[in-house]
Amino acid sequence: MHETLTLPRGKAALLLIDMQEEHRTDHRYLVHEYQAVVENCARLLAAARSHEVPVLHSVYLVDAGTDATRPFHPIGDDGRSAFSDAGAAGSEISPELAPLEREPIIVKRDASCFTAPALAEAIERHAADWLIVAGCWTEACVAATVKDGVERGMRILLVKDACGSGSQAMHETAILNIANRLYGGAVADTDRTVELIGGGTASVWRTSLPVPIKFTYNSAWRDYENL
């Protein structure tokens, strides 16, 4: 259901997840309408910087030659990671979202940003209770980070149109699946989130019950729009 929300001043941080160039340059891993996702993330970033909300960035980087590589990780014919190869072209953060020197870059080797200790350290340093989350891919790194955040007692504000995946259907159903168990948190779009970052109030979608959205193949797009 929809509720009016105001973010507590000084208790929120923005996390941009894996907004890396391969999502618009590597034909194997193109994110649907990635430019629109970048533009919405850029709006969030500008609002956060303007209102002194801490900003965190994450990147997924894999060095296939190390022991830290996950079992069954996809490897190319050259023996290197098939995606997010450390140091390879495309692994860098998109230039529109380039971090400032004061903005930490969380380097991870797994889906969830919480697998990198630096994220918890940054959250504790900023005394953040709310984590505003956007990025790629919705059903993978975004979903895993949100799940781990909720389990750690974080309130997550998921910005639905500032996330992206391989297709519209993949993205929208992923947002619905996350929303169905987003206890303590909320879902909003970029417009409403910018208002919240600026200290205003906005109507957001929240749940206290498990799986309130019983979406179908035919209703998913409508249920997504209603969040």
Any overview of this molecule?
- With 227 residues, the chain is α/β, with parallel strands linked by helices.
- It has one domain (2-68, 77-225): 3-Layer(aba) Sandwich (Rossmann fold).
- 31% of the residues lie in helices and 20% in strands.
- The strands form 2 sheets. A 6-stranded parallel sheet has the order 4-3-2-5-6-7, with helices on both faces. The protein has a two-stranded antiparallel ribbon with strand order 1-8.
- Helix 2 (34-50) runs parallel beside helix 6 (190-197) and helix 4 (138-151) runs parallel beside helix 5 (168-179).
- The longest helix has 17 residues, at 34-50.
- The termini are close together.
| Cα Rg | 17 Å
How large is the share of residues in beta strands? 15-25%
Number of domains: 1
Number of helices: 7
